[in-house]
Sequence to fold (294 residues):
Amino acid sequence: KASKKQVLCTAFTHTAAQCIATDGCQGGTLHHCLYRYPNWSGLIIIDEVSQIPLVLWAAIQRWMFCGAQFIYLGDFTQLPPCLNRWRQTDITGTVEDAKLFKHLCGHNRIKFTQYRRGDDPAFFRFYTSLIPLSVEVVIDRVREAFPVQQGAPDWTLTISHKQCRAINAERNEQLRNETGGGLWMPPEQQSDRQGFWLLPNMNLIGVQTENSIVNGQLYKVLDTKTLQVLGTNETVQISDVRCIRPAHCLVYYSSQGKTLPGRIRLFVGHKKTTTTAIVVGLSRATSKELVDVV
Fold:
């Protein structure tokens, strides 16, 4: 404020972009901001930098040539880009030690070490100790440490979109049978062509930005017309049912940056599950009692 700089807050995914969104600042996903603000010369804050693919780092340089200053937030031990290629060649490294990245940061780095997501530092030490281990060892350890609990969890995380859709459909039908009532959202009104029952207290995620609904934002259903933004007292009206879908289950990338209240179940048996995904999944919970692993 003192320097009166214009500020742009952005991130690669819709979910991460909503986490970093700040009143009084422009924002959106990186793709959106690069298109809408190609000549931005103010301050740019980019969250979850570990998720940015190499091709976008090349585009980000355009802002550097316009005189922009950068603040990058993130952890390179967390989720990497879901697809990172350059000229049809897979990229295995990160930009953490690249000269370009250091130059964009002004050769400054601040490391935060205080655990703020909950009040269980032993839980934090446990899952951060898993980072250097192979995924096979990690799966064995977390299954032993967090056995399956009775009853349905509040949230489920998986690496597979197909499994995510199946779990959402199964859990939604279970809730419908347990509670009755609800309002049916037909498949033809859904972007993924998968209908669901809109039920009180269920979790939803925005999948398009339209009026009051925001892509990537998590919501709790209050009634068939009103949603509460997760973690706040803010309420919004359902303006278009195409903009929402169930969030009984999320893929790991959709949970990045979020604290998920309640109990979380992790599915770790998929062949593409990684140590990083498991660590990110565990870190969404506030204590070890709120996690089980399948």
Observations:
- The first strand starts at residue 7 and ends at 11.
